């Protein structure tokens, strides 16, 4: 009986043992799946695919709501997206689950650093380090908080990175972050040494090669930087940050033909990350000048992300370059609607310039003038150029007083070039300010004596000043025009102006009873245009005389 009971007990223990092992294996499998999923979320976050990372961490948090590490990583995603209030809420949620969530305390400390609350930040760090003085991971995380916030504190970061490194010098990442702190201090030599040491510790960490590439890029040795980035990509073909740094260095190296496929790869790796897509639109517009595609991509992003106001900037630019004034104007209106509501957002001279260009084409002159003046205000060196542009725009619109005003204002800043002087003269002429106009044209022909149109306009100004032709003021100017153009009289415009000149000169000699000289000019008119009735009549009369 005892033997039977013992066998039964042994059998029961065996069943229990198997059940325990099954439970343990199940737990390990769950933990392993969670770890893999957590690592997947971290990988997505490192690739700046923040929305996908947030989904992973949120699912993990829902599955295991008592694990504070998931709210911490949710907070990290929010921080990366600059949703700082949401980040603080997540870090505090982690601490509510466990007061021992040192990572959460460090996250809150970094938020305080961003606000300039140094004392409060240090309290959070001290709490995290309590009992962790020999924990190199926590020490390194505190160093990260000092270095990788909105404002870097490299000296403070170095203190913690050195401690972490000294506790475990085999960890390559500590050397890499140590190099980052030295890079932030512009100590590029020490930074490169730290990165080289990191590679000795771990030759297969692509992050270190990216950091080395940044140093070469900062030294404008882009070929060496690109070489390091290609090594990083070969190691880890889905490492988004390597592609991001690569396309930036290609742009700086003006190697634009290679940028687009790299940028597209970066965007594909970042998934739903809106910032990456905005960068693509910016590149298509600003560097590639593929305005049609920039518009297509920009409108696509705006459909799902209407708050991405910077897209209106690139759309206004692209539409403007395609000479689609109304669409460019509409995008500028949307851009400045956002900028006017938030003074912390930055505007650029190009924003106002494309707004002004579109407004000019749409005959919205007051808006155009306002925006062009904003360009001149933001970039005073461009004021002469802007004033000249306004002068020509008003001239083209036949608003001559305003054209005169802006050409005069440009002349106060620097001498007008010949073309500007000519358009100033025309504006004054159409305002019936003939004396001032003649003075302007006189400057034109002084600088360019063979410019026939300048002599013609002097003739017309003086004809208006001497309407009865009593003094013959226009005579020398018509003669000069004829001298310069009579060698090629067949051009329709030249032919018309030559006839005008010859009629004036013929009439001038008729008034002075020099019929033979007058006849010469009218016969020249007839040679140019046999159908000219005035010339035919004059020739008949003069021949009789």
Structure, described:
This protein is elongated. The N and C termini lie far apart (163 Å). The protein has a domain at 450-545: Tetratricopeptide repeat domain (Serine Threonine Protein Phosphatase 5, Tetratricopeptide repeat, Alpha Horseshoe), CATH 1.25.40. Helix 21 packs across helix 23 (418-430). 78% of the residues lie in helices and 0% in strands. The protein has helices at 2-46, 50-63, 69-80, 84-97, 102-114, 118-129, 136-147, 154-167, 172-184, 188-201, 206-218, 222-235, 240-252, 259-270, 274-286, 291-304, 310-321, 325-341, 349-361, 365-378, 383-396, 400-413, 418-430, 434-447, 452-465, 475-485, 492-511, 515-528, 533-544.
Q: Given the helix and strand composition, which structural class is it?
A: mainly alpha
State mean pLDDT (0 to 100 scale).
88
Query: What's the total number of strands?
Result: 0
Choose one word for the global shape.
elongated
Strand content: under 5%
Helix proportion range:
over 70%
CATH superfamily of the domain at 450-545: Tetratricopeptide repeat domain
Please report the number of helical segments.
29
Order of helices and strands: HHHHHHHHHHHHHHHHHHHHHHHHHHHHH
Give a short summary of the structure.
It contains 29 helices and no strands. The chain has 545 residues and is an all-alpha fold.
Structural key phrases:
mainly alpha; Serine Threonine Protein Phosphatase 5, Tetratricopeptide repeat; 545 residues; elongated
């Amino acid at each position: 009986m005892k033997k039977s009971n013992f066998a039964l007990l042994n059998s029961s223990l065996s069943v229990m043992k198997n059940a325990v092992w099954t439970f343990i294996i199940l737990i390990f499998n769950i933990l392993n799946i969670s770890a893999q999923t957590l690592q997947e979320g971290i990988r997505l976050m490192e690739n700046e695919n923040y929305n996908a990372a947030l989904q992973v961490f949120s699912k993990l948090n829902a599955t295991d709501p008592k694990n504070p590490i998931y709210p911490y990583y949710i907070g990290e995603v929010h921080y990366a997206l600059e949703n700082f209030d949401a980040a603080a809420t997540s870090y505090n949620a982690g601490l509510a689950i466990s007061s021992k969530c040192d990572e959460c305390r460090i996250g809150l400390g970094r938020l305080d650093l961003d606000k300039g609350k140094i004392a409060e930040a240090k309290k959070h760090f001290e709490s995290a380090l309590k009992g962790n003085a020999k924990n190199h991971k926590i020490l390194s995380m505190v160093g990260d908080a000092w270095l990788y916030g909105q404002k870097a504190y490299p000296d403070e970061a170095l203190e913690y990175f050195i401690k972490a490194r000294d506790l475990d010098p085999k960890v390559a990442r500590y050397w890499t972050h140590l190099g980052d702190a030295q890079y932030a201090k512009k100590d590029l030599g020490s930074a490169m040494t730290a990165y080289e040491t990191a590679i000795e510790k771990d030759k297969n960490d692509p992050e270190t090669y990216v950091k080395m590439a940044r140093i070469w890029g900062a030294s404008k040795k882009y070929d060496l930087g690109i070489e390091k980035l290609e090594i990083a990509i070969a190691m880890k073909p889905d490492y988004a940050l390597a592609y991001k740094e690569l396309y930036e260095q290609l742009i700086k190296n003006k190697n634009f033909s290679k940028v687009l496929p790299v940028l597209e790869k970066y965007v594909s790796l970042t998934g739903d990350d809106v910032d990456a897509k905005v960068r693509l639109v910016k590149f298509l517009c600003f560097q590639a000048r593929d305005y049609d595609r920039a518009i297509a991509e920009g409108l696509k992003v705006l459909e799902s992300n209407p708050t991405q106001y910077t897209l209106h900037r690139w759309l206004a630019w692209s539409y403007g370059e395609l000479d689609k004034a109304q669409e460019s104007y509409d995008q500028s209106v949307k851009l400045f609607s956002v900028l006017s509501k938030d003074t912390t957002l930055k505007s650029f001279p190009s924003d106002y310039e494309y707004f002004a260009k579109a407004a000019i084409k749409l005959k919205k002159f007051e808006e155009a003038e306002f925006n062009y003046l904003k360009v001149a205000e933001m970039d005073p060196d461009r004021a002469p150029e802007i004033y000249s542009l306004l002068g020509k725009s008003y001239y083209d619109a036949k608003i001559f007083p305003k054209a005169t005003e802006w050409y005069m204002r440009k002349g106060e800043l620097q001498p007008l070039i010949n073309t500007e002087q000519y358009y100033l003269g025309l504006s004054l002429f159409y305002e019936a300010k003939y004396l001032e106009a003649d003075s302007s044209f006189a400057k034109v022909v002084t600088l360019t004596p063979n410019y026939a149109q300048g002599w013609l306009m002097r003739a017309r100004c003086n004809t208006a000043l001497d309407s009865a032709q009593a003094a013959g003021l226009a005579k020398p100017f018509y003669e000069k025009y004829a001298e310069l153009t009579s060698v090629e009289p067949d051009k329709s415009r030249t032919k018309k102006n030559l006839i005008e000149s010859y009629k004036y000169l013929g009439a001038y000699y008729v008034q002075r009873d020099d019929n033979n000289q007058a006849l010469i000019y009218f016969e020249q008119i007839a040679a140019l245009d046999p159908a000219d009735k005035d010339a035919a009549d004059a020739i008949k009369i003069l021949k009789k005389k």
